[in-house]
Amino acid sequence: MTTNNKNNFCVIMGGGIGSRFWPFSRKTLPKQFLDFFGTGRSLLQQTFDRFKKIIPVENILVVTNDMYASLIKEQLPELSSEQILLEPTRRNTAPCIAWAAYHIQAINPDASMVVAPSDHLILKEDEFLDTVQKGLEFVANDDKLLTLGIKPNRPETGYGYIQIAEQTGDNFYKVKTFTEKPELELAQVFVESGEFYWNSGLFMWNVKSILKAGEQLLPELAAKLSAGIGVYGTPQEKRFIDENFPACPNVSIDFGIMEKADNVYVSLGDFGWSDLGTWRSLYELAPKDADRNVTLKCDSLFYNSKGNIVAMPKGKLAVIDGLEGFLVAESDNVLLICKKDSEHAMRKFVNDAQIKMGEDYI
Amino acid sequence: MTTNNKNNFCVIMGGGIGSRFWPFSRKTLPKQFLDFFGTGRSLLQQTFDRFKKIIPVENILVVTNDMYASLIKEQLPELSSEQILLEPTRRNTAPCIAWAAYHIQAINPDASMVVAPSDHLILKEDEFLDTVQKGLEFVANDDKLLTLGIKPNRPETGYGYIQIAEQTGDNFYKVKTFTEKPELELAQVFVESGEFYWNSGLFMWNVKSILKAGEQLLPELAAKLSAGIGVYGTPQEKRFIDENFPACPNVSIDFGIMEKADNVYVSLGDFGWSDLGTWRSLYELAPKDADRNVTLKCDSLFYNSKGNIVAMPKGKLAVIDGLEGFLVAESDNVLLICKKDSEHAMRKFVNDAQIKMGEDYI
User: Fold this and answer.
1) Is B72 helix (H, G, I), strand (E, B) or coil?
2) Fewer CB within 10 Å: C terminus or N terminus of chain B?
3) By CA distance, what is B361's nearest residue in A?
4) Is pLDDT of A189 > 90?
């Protein structure tokens, strides 16, 4: 693997405030900044470490929210200020990616880019990076929008799926459809068919192609941000964004472009990938004791207990007797105990906690 | 109520290290020093506040272990150093009470004394104090050992029982038998009989009588401690105790004297009393929400949860979904989650925690 290609850029999206790991993740310290498995590196840092093996470090950008600026600088001191794009307000992925594309275009109009979430887990790194490198070659000189599809190993209902059409190259396929998170029965049909792959939320394209697609499919967004051509990459860029970004439409790149464009391709792989979207997904991936209990960061003593996941700060001891299938998560001023499949209720917990206790508790 | 009688002394036993409220109570901060209900006063302080209404403050003594000296001084600044008797090592109640009796005898050979645990709850204070005052009058000039019996309101298996014999005065009865904690069936028979009362562990007698009983029934103990007559109440007392107390036999006042003496009486009452011996007893006494959940000190949000007791430090929020009949207790570096009736396992939890994590966790 080489980092020689100066045309290759990486955009890490690190602005999420996902509350699904509350209270372990907090508004002031979201998931991407946490080191769930005690490896010494947060998910964001792991993402950065991964891409810098194939992308020149100076070509790696992080797009995040203003409020996480200092956290990003603390966790990724290798980045210069110019490599951190700070959104003044939370929009969706399309405005975030469009801004990054205009920014990169100003630096290098011949650039290709890989866009990646900052909070996913990838266990088979070599295979992953090889696929990304081949993907960047695939899109470098062609007007193609490429996404990464993950070979499903179970009928997961928490992911979107990509249906593949005809093969157009070694491991590249045209995309037939994108589908939302399916019900279990449909998910089973998807997996058995061999035609459906998990949507990883990871994309590759050259800058010209994505900006062209934006002009055609999201003209309102393109109009807002193309007005800044000339200031991107200059000291005036941040002020332009602060003034114009809040007016951009709130739309995802999947809905706004990928599902509508006709030049969308998918590259397939099996990378030991997880979006770590829920406590349950974290549970599935983590090492388990003989009774299938998972302990993250803290210490634990289990009695008559099976299939639990416990996450507390380092140095704390959890003594648990008679629990089955529960999540026990504690951080700072909040302790949460619930069934580990009650992900749907998490938003309610967080809302109620905020109403009862205030901002300091979410 | 008056505190005029200079012959009346109170001995508060405050040396226990009970682990039954672990991790809420810790070896360095046992139950008697805790304010379970958030009233602003610990159980020890409540005990002191109660007795100072009928006993001259200078006649109130606390017997405790060396290691709690600073905690006692912090919580009861009204006490002079001479009023705090510091045991160099943990023995049982008989040596503790015998020392206190010799100490009081040196100050006032005509004294009577009430001996009380430091960690019990009493809700009906006036009735209690009235009974104690009458009890102190009852024993002042007679060779009688008096204990307090509590009218049982349920077939509690966690308490010892006192069977009464013939009445010998207004609310005073001869004691027929002391019994250990009974099985449930027997406890039900006890309660229905009307002859059995809970053993409160609270005693009254004059100093001469208890010392005489000790000489007769616990001669080894009496020999050890009577050797110090002449140094009690002097600056040499502490050194004498440090040298001789560790050699005293480890025996309870119940087993060593009350169950064997033939001049034992009981005074009956219903004082809203609890020895707060278990999380369950604390649960029974505490205010409950509509789903019978109890929250001590912290804040809580319950969903689909019934009959739980949650105790965490002030300022913490517990969010609990799907638990029934559990104890959730957290303090410092330990979180305990178990069925609230698994009191029997508490000692195992504490032992295992110590083995796995060390002294700082118990």
Assistant:
1) helix
2) N
3) A317
4) yes
What does the pLDDT read at residue B1? 63
The residue type found at A182 is P
- Contact call for A317 and B353, based on CB within 8 A: yes
User: Per-residue pLDDT for A280 more than 90?
Assistant: no
Interface A-B: count of C-beta contacts within 8 A: 105
Which of A21, A309, A337 to mutate to probe the B interface, most B CBs <10 Å?
A: A337
Q: Do A361 and B317 touch (CB under 8 A)?
A: yes
Q: Model ipTM?
A: 0.83
Tell me the per-residue pLDDT of B231-247, one tens digit each, with 9 for 90 and over: 999 999 999 999 999 99
**What is the overall mean pLDDT for chain A?**
94
Three-state DSSP state, A318: strand
- The region of weakest confidence among A75-89, B132-146, B275-289 is B275-289
User: Are B321 and A338 a contacting pair at CB < 8 A?
Assistant: yes
Q: Which helix (H) or strand (E) holds B326?
A: strand B326-331
Buried b (16+ CB within 10 A) or exposed e, B239-268: ebbeebbeebeebbbbebbbbebebbbbbb
| A20-34, A116-130, A231-245, B189-203: least confident range | A20-34
Q: What average pLDDT does the segment A198-220 reach?
A: 97
Chain B residues in contact with A296 (beta carbon < 8 A)? none
pLDDT of residue A17: 82
- In this complex, the residue of B301, B333, B342 whose CB is nearest that of residue A317 is B333
Q: What is the pLDDT of residues B324-335, one digit of tens each?
A: 999 999 988 999
Q: Residues of B near A (CB-CB distance < 8 A)?
A: 23, 299, 301, 303, 312, 315-323, 326, 328, 330, 333-339, 342, 345, 349, 352-353, 356-357, 361
A interface with B, Cβ–Cβ below 8 Å: 23, 299, 301, 303, 312, 315-323, 326, 328, 330, 333-339, 342, 345, 349, 352-353, 356-357, 361
Q: Which helix (H) or strand (E) holds B103?
A: helix B93-107
Full-model pTM: 0.84
Rounded (10°) angle between helices A219-226 and A207-217: 120
Mean pLDDT of B223-236: 96
One-letter amino acid identity for A206?
A: N
For residue B4, what pLDDT is reported? 73
Q: Contact at 8 Å (CB) between B131 and B271?
A: yes
Q: Give the separation between CA A133 and CA A55, rounded to whole angstroms.
A: 9
| Distance separating alpha carbons of residues B207 and B86, to the nearest angstrom | 20
Q: Which residue has the tokens 């906690």?
A: A353
Q: The tokens of A166 are what?
A: 């005809």
- A337 and B336: CB-CB below 8 Å? no
